[in-house]
Amino acid sequence: MADTAGFMSSDWLGAFLIIAILFGGGNGLFGGGRGPAPNFATVQDVNEAVNASSLQQGIKDVLLSSANNNYETARLIDNQTMFLSNQNNTNTIAAINGFNDIKQTLGAISAQMNECCCSIKTLLIEQELQKTRTELQDAKTKNAINEQSQYLLSVMGKWVANPAATAG
Fold it and tell me: Is this structure's pTM higher than 0.70?
């Protein structure tokens, strides 16, 4: 990035000072009354000074660009890390909620199975109880019939269905 602040910017100021020192001497602006300078700067000297200044500015631009690129890369990495961290947190919460839902569902199924098992057990016990009641009632009925038969037989005495005919 070239500095366009004007003639007195840091790069031009350096070039100006180099030129002033090279051309200093004599009774001119920078001479200070010391007499003429023994050697004057050549066009090549001035061009080398300007080229050196331009080279330094180019190096500064490259370093600044590199620093900007490093900053932007660091920001991109930071943003990506934050995004991945947020995504990880979201996934973790979703997994925990999923496990909680599964736990609740298993609890409900377990309760339903317990109720079902209790219902089946109760039904089987009721059926067995009804069967036992029926058998008890049948046994009571048989006993009552037996008792009635015994009573009738005892009241009638000995009874023979077809007595033998007596010859007589």
Answer: no
116-136 average pLDDT score: 92
CB within 8 A of 33, min separation 6: which ones? 27
The model's pLDDT over 38-65, given as tens digits with 9 standing for 90+, comes to 578 888 988 899 999 999 999 999 999 9
In sequence order, what are the residues at sequence separation of 6 or more whose Cβ sits closer than 8 angstroms to the Cβ of residue 61? 1, 2
Please say if the pLDDT value at position 144 is more than 90: yes
**Which sign does the torsion angle of CA 128, 133, 136, 141 carry?**
negative
| Nearest one of 7, 9, 20 to 49, comparing CA atoms | 20
On the CB side of 46, how many CA atoms lie within 13 Å of its CA? Answer: 9
CA distance 103 to 149: 68
Both tokens assigned to 127: 């059926």
Token pair of 92 as six digits = 């973790």
Are 26 and 36 spatial neighbours (Cβ–Cβ below 8 Å)?
Answer: yes
